[in-house]
Write a structure and sequence with these properties.
The complex is a heterodimer. Chain A is mainly beta. Helix content of chain A is 0%, strand content 45%. Chain A is built from no helices and 9 strands. Chain B is mostly beta strands. In chain B, the strands form 2 sheets. In chain B, strands 2, 4, 5, 6, 9, 10 and 11 form a 7-stranded mixed β-sheet that branches. Chain B has a 4-stranded antiparallel β-sheet with strand order 1-3-8-7, with no helix packed on it. The mean pLDDT of chain B is 96. The chains are: A mainly beta, B mainly beta. Chains A and B meet through strand 3, strand 7 and strand 8 of A and strand 5, strand 9 and strand 10 of B.
Chain lengths: 108, 118
């Protein structure tokens, strides 16, 4: 089955840019969606279809997808961005929703 | 505002059964797939099952196939997850989430805890 690989943790100082990667074989052929999960809360979609922001999501959040890597970029990081982030795709060959293992973003 | 509310969780003994419900409101329920996603304590998100708009297609994660059954009632705007032969490793918060045919899960419920323990 399809596997998505994320780094367990990323740290960034406030005001800087955070980049969270999501690796998968030929992931560029799939639509990648990203979710933010703050402690004790349900996940919330922050990027869909590689680089689309749902209503209400700040422009600081953006995405890209090329080759074997999709990336979530958070510009001008704020303390409130500290959370777990998950990438996700639909794997049509197995008819499975697939999540990455998640990345904990720490704002220093 | 789109709302999804899970219910039916609780404590159950190994080998027991439980039925979760997910009630949707403030959107045309029959136009959307519904997914169940779970999260074991301290762990990441794990997809469990998907049911398409008219129940034409149903998908399961391998470890629950044969033990869990997903169904929906578009008149009641509800999706159900019947869970049987529960094991300790089924212990998790279970979320229902609205989805599209392309797989994004755009709205999530608040989650419901299922604990499997003797």
């Amino acid at each position: 089955s399809y596997v998505l690989t994320q780094p367990p943790s990323v740290s960034v100082a406030p005001g800087n840019t955070a980049r969270i990667t999501c690796g998968g074989k030929n992931i560029e052929t799939k639509s990648v969606h990203w979710y933010q999960q703050r402690p004790g809360q349900a996940p919330m979609m922050v990027i869909s279809y590689d680089n689309e922001r749902p209503p209400g999501i700040p422009e600081r959040f953006s995405g890209s997808n090329s080759g074997d890597t999709a990336t979530l970029t958070i510009s001008r990081v704020e303390a409130g961005d500290e959370a777990d982030y998950y990438c996700q795709v639909w794997d049509g060959s197995s008819d499975h929703v697939v999540f990455g293992g998640g990345t904990k973003l720490t704002v220093l | 505002e789109v709302l999804l509310v899970e219910s039916g969780g609780g404590l159950v003994k190994p080998g027991g059964s439980l039925r979760l419900s997910c009630a949707g409101s403030q959107f045309t329920f029959s136009n959307y797939n519904i997914n169940w996603v779970r999260q074991a304590p301290g762990k990441g998100l794990e997809w469990v099952s998907t049911i398409t708009r008219s129940s034409s297609y149903i998908y399961y994660e391998d470890s629950v196939r044969g033990r869990f059954t997903i169904s929906r009632d578009n008149v009641k705007n509800s999706v159900y997850l019947q869970m049987k032969s529960l094991r300790a490793d089924d212990t998790a918060v279970y979320y229902c989430a609205r989805g599209s045919p392309n797989g994004e899960l755009d709205y999530w419920g608040q989650g419901i805890l299922v604990t499997v323990s003797s």
